[in-house]
Amino acid sequence: MSCLISILENMKPGVDFANEISLIDSHILDSVDIMSLAMDIEKYFHVEVTPLEIVPENFQSANAIYEMILRLNAAR
């Protein structure tokens, strides 16, 4: 999880990603951020983020993103 938080903080410094629960609804992350984050997730966590995974529910919080990563990792 700490690696994910570091990736997010590098994208958007100053956001409390550990506690923020509405990254999409609050417009903290936009579509370009999501695509960049998906590529970073693939690179650092060695999972494939398919278009089916790129839905708001999976990117609403760091916890939701991490749960997606764990799910994708388990599916390998």
TrEMBL record:
Pfam families: PP-binding (PF00550)
InterPro entries (UniProt xref): ACP-like_sf, PP-bd_ACP
Segments forming domain Carrier: 29-68
Protein name in the entry: Acyl carrier protein
